[in-house]
Specification:
The complex is a heterodimer of chains A (about 230) and B (about 230). Chain A is an alpha/beta fold and about 230 residues long. Chain A has five helices and 14 strands. The radius of gyration of chain A is 18 Å and the shape is globular. Chain B is about 15% helix and about 30% strand. In chain B, the strands form two sheets. Chain B has a ten-stranded mixed beta sheet. A three-stranded mixed beta sheet of chain B has the order 7-6-9, with no helix packed on it. Classes of the chains: A alpha/beta (about 230), B alpha/beta (about 230).
């Protein structure tokens, strides 16, 4: 059976993230479904020239109202592909990414949220590109093929196949099958599908069979490494 | 330009929008005024609200500090309860619902709406970075798109225009605009004024609207009874 390795620490689980790697960061926001421990390990590491793919910028919630967020330093991030570069969650202090995008030191590829989710799902499903009605007639169609089907225009969007996905789940079994807590699911499942290496931080690891097959949300075939983290994230 | 007359508060704009929602509709609400529409939709109407982060069946708000169900949030990051029969999904499936035309109505806020039904609602010009979030998908995908917003900006700039000058969210998608002084339908031939706030005349609404505004033969006052 394809028992998944359980790493002793988030740092060990992400230690082979290399310079120039693309990383999909799961969840919906810094405080919802974000694999905070894995992200903190990347933030504390030394890999550079990274590309982050996520709903927002690579930042996680700390639970500390004085310093509500930590980030992967933008100096080590070449590019961010996301839908919320100016996140509402940064209103307690401007995210350093806003300045990095404005100055062009980190490249921003702004993507409508549904297009981002489908680019990942398609990447995981072996579909290299797809047509979507989102973005027709707007800046989001710039440089892309626009084609008419049945009298309506659609934009051709390319799939994403990140090198790594960092995902957060409530529970895993030893085969890597995952379930999520409520709306913490969000981008985690399509990212797990899309990445070449998917690393999941989970709050509990159980024996195979303990999660009933019909309740498994992400099958372990998409999940390559597990890290057990104690307690619920902020 | 300004006209010194009472305008509807945000809550009454939301209340008017809520009357458009038919029993059993599936509806997505954007942040701001649209989000208030749920407060004026009685549960017995059976309208089901969708949060694009992955919840179909948003119920009442949860009190921060007294969280009953953790990690159960709407797309604005506010803790909410699920209704009985609610369904959780991932982002890809959530936007399949959005893009696939499964939502009866979406209500979004607006910075500008054009006479052709174009919507600009995610970035003011001059800002370096704007967040489009799910707005472009929702605007393109909902079967009917309503916009709920103030008729003019705080500085008196017109928001219902001939051509949007702000970055576009989607083109030719807005069906109706609900403001603090009017309800306007987007027709193939242009904008039609259907309702005015109490005390307002069509001429006064026109004076605050850059795009040409036809007046419906059945023009009426916005009904403010619950």
């Amino acid at each position: 059976m394809a028992i998944r390795p359980v790493f002793d620490s988030p740092e060990e689980a992400v230690s082979d993230i290399f310079d120039g790697a693309s990383i999909a960061l799961g969840g919906f926001s810094a405080a919802l479904g974000c694999p905070i421990n894995l992200l903190r390990a990347v933030a504390g590491g030394s890999a550079r020239d990274l590309t982050f793919i996520g709903n927002g910028v690579p930042q996680g919630a700390t639970g500390n109202p004085e310093q509500p967020f930590f980030v992967v330093p933008p100096e080590r991030v070449r590019k961010v592909i996301c839908s919320f570069p100016a996140a509402a969650t940064t209103r307690r202090g401007v995210s350093p990414y806003e300045a990095a995008f404005a100055e062009g030191t980190t490249e921003l590829e702004l993507v409508p949220q549904g297009t981002l989710a489908e680019r990942l799902r398609a990447g995981g499903a072996g579909i290299p590109a797809f047509y979507t009605p989102t973005g027709v007639g707007t800046q989001f169609e710039k440089g892309k093929e626009v084609r008419e089907f049945d009298g309506r225009k659609y934009v051709l969007e390319r799939a994403l196949r990140p090198d790594f996905a960092l995902v957060k789940a409530l529970k895993a079994d030893k085969l890597g099958n995952l379930v999520y807590r409520n709306t913490a699911r969000a981008f985690n499942p399509p990212m797990a599908m899309a990445a070449k290496v998917t690393i999941a931080e989970v709050e509990e690891i159980v024996e195979p069979g303990e999660i009933p097959p019909e309740l498994i949300v992400t099958p372990g075939i998409y999940v390559h490494r597990l890290v057990l983290v104690q307690g619920r994230q902020p | 330009m300004t006209i010194e007359k009472d305008r509807l508060p945000r809550e009454l704009i939301a209340m008017r929008v809520a009357k458009e929602l038919q029993p059993g509709y599936f509806v997505n609400l954007g942040i701001g005024i649209p989000n208030l529409v749920a407060d004026f939709t009685p549960p017995e109407k059976g309208v089901i609200f969708h949060a694009e982060n992955g919840l179909l069946g948003i119920g009442r708000a949860q009190e921060v500090g007294k969280i009953e169900i953790p990690d159960m949030m709407n797309a604005g990051g506010q803790p909410v309860m699920p209704i009985p029969g609610a369904w959780l999904m991932d982002s890809a499936e959530s936007f399949a619902i959005v893009r696939g035309g499964h939502l009866d109505v979406a209500v979004l806020g607006g910075l500008q709406v054009s006479e052709k039904g174009d919507l600009a609602n995610w970035m003011r010009p001059g800002r370096a970075v704007g967040s489009v979030g799910g707005a472009a998908d929702i605007a393109a995908g909902a079967r009917q798109l309503f916009v709920a917003m103030e008729h003019t900006t705080k500085d008196g700039e017109m928001k219902i225009v001939r051509e949007c000058t702000y970055p576009l969210t989607a083109v030719g998608v807005v069906k109706k605009v609900f403001t603090d002084i009017a309800v306007i339908r987007v027709d193939s031939s242009g904008l039609v004024l259907e309702e005015v706030a109490p005390g307002w005349t069509p001429e006064e609404v026109r004076a605050l609207t850059e795009a040409p505004l036809a007046v419906s033969p059945s023009l009426r006052e916005i009904d403010l009874t619950m």
